[in-house]
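Appendix B, example 12.
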Amino acid sequence: MEDNIRLFSSMDHFEIININDGDKHGYLCNNDIVIDENGKFKCLILNEPKNKFSFFNNTTFSEVPWEYIKKIGSKTIIIDIDDKLMKKTGI
């Protein structure tokens, strides 16, 4: 395999960090990635529970477009997006 190719299964414990505000958004295994029909990353969906200790709470999902994903490192995914630019959806 080429050096710049990563298997998705090896990325599930990558931590997602927003350098815009320093927030940590958990690990990739707790979030989702949207991939288009050509196999390219479209966006990252961040699962942001409002209360981490309740099973019956509302959850907010924030959409981070691919252009705001700045770097995929050896153990982290670095994003740089202002909170106002993220599309939020609640369940």
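The mean pLDDT is 85. The chain has one domain: 8-90.
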